[in-house]
Amino acid sequence: MARQLEEQIVGRFPVGRRLRVLDVGMGRGAQALRLARAGHQVTGIERDTAMISAVREVLAGQPEGIRDRMRIIEGQAGDTGVHFLPGSFDVVLCHGELMYVEEPDALLAGVARMLAPGGLLSLLMRNGDAPAMRAGLSGDWAGALAGFCTTAYGLKRLTSTLAGIGAPLHTWYGVRVFTDSVPDGGILPSDLDALLAVEDRAGRTDPYRGVASLLHLCGVRG
After folding, report:
1. CA quadruple 195, 201, 203, 206: dihedral, nearest 10
2. Using CA atoms, how far apart are residues 154 and 158, in angstroms rounded to an integer?
3. Which secondary structure element, helix H or strand E, spans residue 193, and what is its range?
4. Which one of 40, 69, 164, 190 has the lowest number of neighbouring Cβ atoms within 10 Å?
5. How far apart are CA 199 and CA 42, in angstroms?
6. Which of 157, 54, 33 is nearest to 44 (CA)?
7. What is the rounded radius of gyration, in angstroms, for the C-alpha atoms of the chain?
8. How many CA atoms lie within 13 A of 56 on its CB side?
């Protein structure tokens, strides 16, 4: 995921340019901190006070230059228009937020408005086309049947939505093609490098990426 985002940024913006980055729903701040360490000016929005405290604790141990490049705002993901003017950012991240809001289309439109012309929108969300596959592979036949009836976002709907909000899809990846059943925090396999290489390759290759548990989509503001 981090590698995919980095290659999109490197491919779109001049080397050495300090970007204005907005991380909507920054969680524990892994992406935000990584980008601040890379020299970018990063603003994170997060509603969970425990998450904010965790980010601030990590940030306190960083060099002064990195601390100065990070700004944290406590607030809802849909409140970007309250805090910022349209076109204020070169890169907007919205990773893992859309599945938790009642009106994802409105949230998408709001975060897209924050992009300057030519800006990059990075989305990470559940793949609405994958539930039947994931359930079927685990032997959950009732869940697989239910998965065919999901109304969650799939690639086709997301592509249409991004075009409609002025940030057409530029490229996309599958995330967790083979490893969705591996528990978070579990013991890392001895052949981790091989696993990561397979996931990276599958996430870029049809038809495998189409059934990944998560989608990473990158749109560009026209």
Report:
1. -130
2. 6
3. helix 192-202
4. 190
5. 28
6. 33
7. 18
8. 12
Residue 122 lies in a domain: yes
Q: Cα(199)–Cα(193) distance, rounded to whole angstroms? A: 10
Tell me, yes or no, whether 163 lies in a domain: yes
Establish if 205 belongs to a structural domain. Answer: no
Report the DSSP pairing between strands 214-220 and 169-175. antiparallel
Q: What is the pLDDT of residues 111-121, one digit of tens each?
A: 999 999 999 99
CATH number for position 18? 3.40.50.150
Task: Over range 133-147, report the average pLDDT.
Answer: 87
- Domain that includes residue 171, residue range: 2-126+153-177+214-220
120 located within any domain: yes
Which token pair is 31?
A: 């992406």
Distance CA 217, CA 179 (A): 19
Q: With contact defined as beta carbons under 8 Å apart, do 90 and 21 qualify?
A: yes
187-203: string of b/e by CB count within 10 Å (b at 16+)? eeeeeeeeeeeebbebb
Q: DSSP for 180-192?
A: TTSPTT-PPPTTH
The tally of domains found in the chain comes to 1
Q: Residue 179 in 3-state DSSP?
A: coil
Per residue in 158-182, pLDDT (tens digit) is 999 999 999 999 999 999 998 876 6
